Amino acid sequence: MKVAIVNLGQIVSGDWRVPFAIGDTILIEGERIAAVGTAPAEAVEAADVIIDAGGMTAIPGLIDSHVHVTFGDYTPRQRTVGFLESYVHGGVTTAISASEVHVPGRPRDPEGVKALAIAAQRSFADWRPGGMRVIAGSVILEPGLTATDFRELAQKGVSLAKAGFGAVRSSYDYVPLVADAKAAGLLTTCHTGGSSIPGSGAITGDHLLKIQPHVSFHTNGGPTAMPDADFERVIRESDMALQVCTAGNLRTTLLCARLAEQHGAFDRFIIGTDTPTGSGIMPLGMLYTIAHLASLTDMPPERFICAATGSNARVYALDSGLLAPGKAADLVLIDAPEGGTQATALAAIKHGDIAAIGAVITAGVPRFVGRSRNTPATTRKARVVASRVMQDFAAAGQ
């Protein structure tokens, strides 16, 4: 299917160093973006679906880099069905597993945790709940796992490994496990801060600097933050990604953002929600964290949109997160919320308001055009002005 989006007010690229694309049009062919900015009139007219954005802002689909998936679109932690599909209505087009730790009765032996990771990865490999792509299957690092186990997991498609919930005597025992996982090509993540659920333990800056994961999960606390002095140490003494999460400590979220900017480490600053957990289900969690960061720091809102999109994509080696030719056609139309005091989406975010969503497209398919069921109404109205396909893209039908 070919999709044309016209009459855009702004295009946020997803690259925080060059955050805006010039122009008012995006063309999609199949599952890829074909053009950003301008397009010949005949190319627009040849599209199967033409969406008039009405002056809204286009951003890459949000990438939630910390979601506790299990199997199917269900969370036993909150006993809720359909939470992933609901996150799509919060602008999330990709969810990345932070380990399937909430599976009831989850195994703790090496064969069991390997089987759990492989089963989760396979379950979501070709299934998109609500149109969302889910990167699932994060092996939970447990004593007894070997370098051979990690190579086997990588060969079978598992790409993630998580430290922080294993039955280790000390958090320092993760050092060789993470090293072996990294050697096998897995991207390694690590719980940061105080313990969160039974079976987890506190992990501080000293632990992180010895473990050396690729990503410090909820570095702002999940939900309890590590000591303030550890933030600058981790930023200055490592190159690990610094993930802040909605379900964490807001004060240290802001501290981490400011320190990352101060020390030239903003490339490593990424955003997730750390949900569903005891903090609940947060379809608008990514939008909330973007608004909190933009309104409570001196940095512009597009900087944090990029941290939630292109920066996540770079850390996790994804083909999405950027509005650029050849990238995955995952994007969201946002606007100032109706009834607010600001005129544009970015101004509203800087003001501290949650952006309103007018359309979500994943894998080149409009999942809805009109209004998200989870955000306020948009000030401007996106609408399908031409369609050659027999499909209703209205939000009410989704």
Give a summary of the structure in a few sentences.
By secondary structure, the chain is α/β, with parallel strands linked by helices. It folds into 2 domains: 2-60 and 323-397, Urease, subunit C, domain 1 (Roll), CATH 2.30.40.10; 62-283, Alpha-Beta Barrel (TIM Barrel). It has helices at 41-45, 83-88, 110-125, 147-155, 174-183, 205-211, 228-237, 250-262, 285-296, 301-307, 310-315, 345-351; strands at 2-6, 10-12, 20-21, 25-29, 32-37, 49-52, 57-60, 62-67, 74-75, 80-81, 92-97, 133-135, 138-140, 160-163, 187-190, 215-216, 241-245, 269-272, 331-335, 356-362, 365-369, 383-387.
Instruction: Using the alpha-carbon principal axes, give the shape.
Output: globular
Mean pLDDT: 96
Backbone structural class: alpha/beta
Reported for the largest beta sheet, the result is: 6 strands, mixed
**Residues in β-strands, percent:** 15-25%
Number of domains: 2
Give me the CATH architecture of the largest domain, please. Answer: Alpha-Beta Barrel
Give me the count of strands: 22
Question: Mind explaining what this structure looks like?
Answer:
This protein has 398 residues and is α/β, with parallel strands linked by helices. The chain has two domains: 2-60 and 323-397, Roll (Urease, subunit C, domain 1), CATH 2.30.40.10; 62-283, TIM Barrel (Alpha-Beta Barrel). Helices cover 27% and strands 23% of the residues. The chain has a six-stranded mixed sheet. The longest helix is centred in the first third of the chain and has 16 residues, at 110-125. The radius of gyration is 20 Å and the shape is globular. The model has no long low-confidence stretch (mean pLDDT 96).
